[in-house]
Write a structure and sequence with these properties.
2 helices, 3 strands
């Protein structure tokens, strides 16, 4: 579920709320004292934090992709 950051216009404090995208408009109508802040989403990377390289299981998947599509070059730099 996405998280949304709001600034409370009365207290100037930031608040984070976890809402479904379909609930966001209704939430903003019911909480006019909150102004939504523009933030970037978190990105989950494929690099391991311990070794700095791709996990071997992921590299195996890329190798299999290369076997099935030998002329494709999209995964060459990951193998």
């Amino acid at each position: 579920m996405p998280s949304y950051t709001f600034t409370n216009t009365a207290t100037n404090e930031e608040e984070t709320h976890f809402l479904k995208m379909s609930e966001l408009d209704e939430f903003k109508k019911n909480n006019e004292h909150l102004k939504q802040k523009l933030t970037t989403g978190n990105v989950i990377g494929g690099l391991s934090t311990s070794s700095g390289s791709l996990p071997e299981g992921l590299r195996d998947t890329f190798r299999e992709m290369k076997k099935k599509h030998p002329r494709s070059t999209g995964v060459d730099n990951f193998i």
